[in-house]
Records
---
Amino acid sequence: MRVTCIGGGPAGLYLGILIKARFPSWPVRIAERNRPLDTFGWGVVFSDATLENLRAADEPTQREITQAFAHWDDIEIYFNGHTIRSGGHGFSGISRKRLLSILQHRATELGVELSFQTDITDVATERDRCDLLVGADGANSRVRQSFADEFQPTLERRGCRYVWLGTTLPLDAFTFIFERTEHGWFTVHAYRFDEELSTFIVECREETWLAHGLDTADSAQTIAFCEELFEPYLHGHRLLTNSAHLRGRDWLNFTRVSNEHWSTGNVVLLGDAAHTAHFSVGSGTKLALEDAIGLADALAGVESAGLEKALQQYEASRKLEVLKLQNAARNSTEWFENIARYATLPPEQFAYSLLTRSQRIGHENLRLRDTTYVDRIERWFGGRAVPPMFVPFRLRGLELQNRIVVSPMDMYSSVDGTPGDFHLVHLGTRALGGAGLIFTEMTCVTREGRISPGCAGMYLPEHVPAWKRIVDFVHTSSRAKICLQLGHSGPKGSTKLLWEGMDEPLDEGNWPLVAPSAIPYASRNQAPSELTRAEMVEIRDAFVRAAGMGVEAGFDMLELHCAHGYLLSSFITPLRNHRHDEYGGSLANRLRYPLEVFRAMRAVWPEERPMSVRISATDWVDGGINGEDAVEIARAFKLEGADLIDVSAGQTTPDAKPVYGRMFQTPYSDKIRNEVGIATMAVGNITDVDQVDAILAGARADLVALGRPHLADPFWTLHAAAELGYEEAPWPVQYLSGKEQLERLVARAKDAAS
């Protein structure tokens, strides 16, 4: 098989090495437009796991790379006059030129044909000259552009400018420097890659870059500006540039690259041509080399399965891993784009937020790396060394024993809105299980406002004693508090029980629906009627009446449901609200009715008891609610007296395209909390103690709600306490012997694993 690779960076060179090592008879040619050691950037960082992958793929190459490494363990952060250091992170760096030299030498040794200063402009003709054409030509890939209709790329230009410099200062830690100027923040990402030199990347927002006139600066002026700004940290050392071959384009924007497909016919993408990850997670070269391993592995089956299947296998083997890392890189990118959001945090929390920004590193993971650092953070956060989730939290007159919340989850098990024995056992068990706050499911304020015939309600006189029975059990049998969540289904009502068909209309017995506009939730759902002003007043009063009933039942807290496409959410999103009166149009108008309802409820809810609002922070659809809108929504409710925003997302349209992943909604909680200055509750695919404590200590939320984990384990919180060695979590006295046994079993398991 004749292989041509366009692009002679690490991805293309390593693929050439692997192909020639495994298939010596295959002719392999690599065409690179630049000279052999032209490179953008200075050093490359590898993890131990990546090195092991390289050893298994081609040990001679791995051995050469390892011998050239500079190694360090610490991260050092300079922020607002404070220096914070954390150890145990284990980085290895190598000069980018040295890496290219090693790969070029090994490729030549194996018989790969290297053609430098060869700019292939006619990609289609080149494709026809070989059996396999590999596009390893970087983020601005000409190969990808030539077959864009087939690859279907998405290019997302991010909001910061960066310049990749070097310095003669040999740093002894991966170093982050944050300096504020009159026009905004500048960040340095710096690390040593050999005995004498370090990479020194300077980054700032586009508007800051423009305000300082750096858009017209040449290389010398850029160097002078950065040396003056970071003079206290350079200790007399100089900054260096190696971007002459880029024709003066020192400052660049990072572009996030992804492709729907990685191959078409006999053409395949590799490395940055297929996907990019922001340099702040240091994984671009890692992904490129691992792509090369994956493609070489897949080509081993080309004779039996054919090229098309081999390329499909390559894509399938790599795409999920790449997506995970791109999601982590997106979180990291957004953190650095929004330094001003975090700059008001205390230095200790700012640094912790930085270290855990990608959501790949959690609290216990940090503890494994640097126990002393994590102990210091816990003492700062809670006044003593205690896991953040077990630090009490206060909202108005309500104090929670810990920050774990049982998320509101519809059970579809009520009779005409009346909760029964199932709800007593369901909510009561989870209160016994140690959570600080228990939420009811969305409790509907009218019979017609139910999602399904099985939904809970607060509209009949008998609902009050039914709920009071549950509230009294929670209060007398546990230290948990309980929150009543009130809502109205709007256009998503009159549907089957969840297990009979989600959002499916009833086969019979449907009731009429209402909404801000006469738009059905989905084509299969009935069309609602557009609410009149008189009907809006009637429903508002139903919310108020239900809030008063909640007071009678003894609830500690009240939440207004303005998310997930139900009635009030449908007013907020432009996807559902097409009104032409004062309740439609601008975001301020669309918020008018939900705010009116909240204001009326707040007036009857006791002053000392808190109120929260659940929102969908994004519709996951172009033209719908986005993160910036969510900030304004939260700000509006804060002005009306909301104490906490319960930050969910989506479920407002069946056309939504969520970006799933672990803690996938937490960045919206982070954004709202730190831009609006209001307490938030994070929810959404949060599953373990490591994630929970990192969210809390990193100022991404003040409470963490878990749904499915509590369905699987009602005693999640008490089990978490045992896992963490936290013995002070209160157990029901009837269960204390179980506590002692569990703690012994956990201790034995840890001893056996150590």
---
Amino acid sequence: MAGRKKRSKNHILLMIPVVILAVLLLVFLAGAFFFSGHFLPDIRINETDVSYMTEEEAEEALTKEAVKYSLIVSGREKTGGIIVASDIGLKPVFNGVIGEFLKSQNAFSWPFSFSGSAEFTSENVVDFDVDRLNAALGALGIYDGQRPPKDAYLSEYSSENGYTVIPEDPGTTLIRDKTEEVVRMAVEHLKNEVILDEEGCYTEPGVFKDDPVLNTLKDNLNKYVRVSLTIDYGDNSETVDGDLIGRWISVEGTTVTLDESKVREYVDSLAKAHDTFGLSRQFTTHDGETITVRGGNYGWWTDRPNTAAALTEAIKNGESGEFKPVYFSEAKVHGDSDIGNDYVEVDLDKQHVYVYKDNRVVVDSDCVSGKVSAGNFTPDGTYAITYKERDATLVGETYSSPVKFWMPFNGNIGMHDASWRNQFGGEIYITGGSHGCVNLPRKKAGEIYDVIEKGEAVVVHGGKQAVPASDPNDLSNLTEEQRQALMQLLLQQQAESTEPQAAPQPEPQAEPEPQAEPEPQEEPEPQPQQEPQPEQAEGGE
């Protein structure tokens, strides 16, 4: 009896899974049967939810949506509007399409449809008047006041930012055919909104701000125009920056070229404005009289070719800072009074020399200048101390004169002690002067030697002369080409001249009688401020 009960219990336990499976099968089959005539869960037709609906129910839902259908058309810059079904005569037309959608779904897959969604789209479920649609689209004003697109481009030069890329302007010009097609397709699919920009309905610029060619050109231009060079001319400094360089460059493709001829023209203009070499100067004498001193070899003289080459290289290298021109000759300071505050004044009328430091006389002395009667007058003009030399021997064709202090300033003309003289000043120079040099008492020559420096100005003025002083030395009317030619000649003469060497100090001797002085050789033309390199210095005694 007990065994029979046990077998009955086991039989019941075995039947439970069978019953469960049978129930599940029935549910599955029932679901498949249901969805053979109804749409699966989360199914949409042209954005209308038709889940669990029959064909007729789905058509009814689509009809309701069609009647209240509206399309939002969105354009650039807040243009666009809404098109409603009544504007375009929209009505549903199914022609069995909904039934075909229903048959195409797999009813036996219904258990898996709860985890996803599906959508059917068709261009054949609605009918509308295309002409009315295009008219309604135009009525939205999307074609009014259209602005054409503009390419990205480079800005004008700005001292603050150089060249920059101005972004493109996309504009508001619609491609009409494309726009009408996009809107028509949206209506056919009963979409709720169409964004014309996203659909590519606008005419686009040809060049955008990230264009590599445009940005390469920008970088190449900025390499030049971000240069800022200052040229010191005292109170009137000049600046070479992008405003100026921008007028010197040309562009071909992405290649930027600096017009070197314009750099040379600029350097020429600087030289004309600031060079003072050989020009006449207003000078205030020791007596307070303002006079004009003509000629000489003192002043600023720009080496134009080398300055232009150096400036070109600095610009091409993108350098900034201070730029110093290349000079044949330099003065102490820039400006109208370029001799500065430390200089020497030689007054030939008074036969007197004044040495100034900070515009105050620190040494002065009588002197004897060039012998006028023999045509060896000391030329007027503004010069510069070429160099200083102790124990030099001045050599000419008919003389050899050792001196303790030799201070040339105009080629072989200079200041030096004259131990053979015992008188200075007055009118000795007219018939008993030197070969052109400025003779000084030895003590005074030593004092002057100790305080003057190479490059300081020597202003020579006044005196009686056999020929006009301006003839050999006044360079104020020379053209630049003549100046360049003269400089080459002076450099050549300087290289051929001799440098003074130390000579044994002679015993003091009486000044030679003027009539016994040998006839001098003609003095050479003024030479640039550059020390000669030979063994002996030839000079006017």
---
Amino acid sequence: MKQKNLKIIIAAIILIFSVVNIIIAEDFKGEDNLIKALSTFEKDIYYGLQYLLNKYQKQQLLSIESAINRAEWRKEFWIYKDPTPTTKKNERKIEHEARVTLAKKLFGMEKPPGWDKRGETLIRFGMPSSRTKIPGDIGFYKMTPPGEIWYYKKLDMLIPFQNFNLNGIFIYAIERYGESGRETVDKLQRIKQFYSLRSIQELMYTTPNEVKAIIEFNPDDISYIANPDTRASKAHDLIAAIENRKIIKSRNNFYKYLEEHPTIYSFEVNQKVLPVYFDIVNYRNTTNLVQTTVSFEIPSSEIRFIKKGGKLTGEALLSVLVRNMDMEKIASGNDTIRVIQSGGDKFRGPSHLPGQIVLNLNPGYYRIGLEAVDTQSKHRGVFNTTFKIDRMDNRLAMSDIQLASMIIEVDNQTKYTRGDLQIIPHPLHAYRIPYPLTFYFEIYGLDTNSEDISFYSIDYKITPLGKRRKGLVYEDVLTAISSKFDREGKGSKQIQRLEIATDNLWHGTFNLTISVMDRRTRTSVHKSARFSILE
């Protein structure tokens, strides 16, 4: 039945598609000349790589004069595109290179880029779910060259090709925008005749509700349809129209993906995403290095728990890889979130499970890759971002603000501790009324008197990032909460643990800004963090 359904679609596509030649212009002026200057080896690489590059990246790569430097550019590009940045394996690069090899083998041609449009499509999207060859046809209006139709099931994407010049080089087949009235009538008649040979239930894209509506269609309720022969053909025309719309949608998905996602790899289609929240907080270390804490939170509802031996167990592996701006590896770390519950079939613990990785880095700019993998379901959450570490020595400075779900005093050093405080990180940065906004930060480089006492003031403000809804209208609120107080303490370093009531806040996103002023030197510093309030 599936084979018959596919034939129905193929026949309909043959009737509604025709060919236009596509002229491909340079993405930027001088591109062709720069490509010609490459060695044969580099041309082969570039032709395969071009589908992953925008015009600015193409110009940047081709404008590099040295082959060694171009190779370094490509190396950094693949690091940047690595879907699993904390592992040695680069799945995107491996699959891309395999696709290019296959495109040359199956759809190769002598002139650049070395393959026809089938090869380009293979490199962009991989091999299709089904690939059907279409014989040529000579009709009343035109000759239809032989071709192929590719269908990608998971993308719901149809791509027709035609061997337009009968030379074995296939191009895209594009629907013409205009055709004669007689040609349109004849095409519809041929579609009707084609569909009349098959039962309604065999239509591949027709849902049960659509079939039911077609079967129960009563033309006698429509006064302007009087001819019995017209009534007999109307159901088939309706079926053709429904199927034709779905075919056009599948075909148009090709242009949609070509514009929005010009390349798609198997791991992007098949990989289930694990929701992960993270934040990065920097503290001054005892040395010249900065202690960088990367905190995670994973919704416990997204973790697959396995019951074994009367215990419910869930586990997620966390990993971090830090590179400098030259893409050299600088540091890495790992952590494991492991939860074991005795009894019960459902997890009864917190809604979000925390994890944390601590690194020591020099001040500077970095690129960081983060991954979280559920060991049971294999669902994966991946992020890449850049961040800057400021110097904190020999001057007044602050750590970043660590938003927390809970801060408690402890007697011994355990996970998440700073001094005698255990700070449970809350990267989600969302608080529900009436639970308080809880956070921690450190102050460095305060000036002290002869007794090693520092004097400073703290000023904090919470400002909404949107308007506040009041009844049926929205109003501007410049500052929701603010406070200022003076403090003093022993030493140039001071730690701060604060809680702010959320009763006067409302559903929305806010910015917390903290300013610290050294009352002896009158210098100041500030940091900010964003959070949300849930009702």
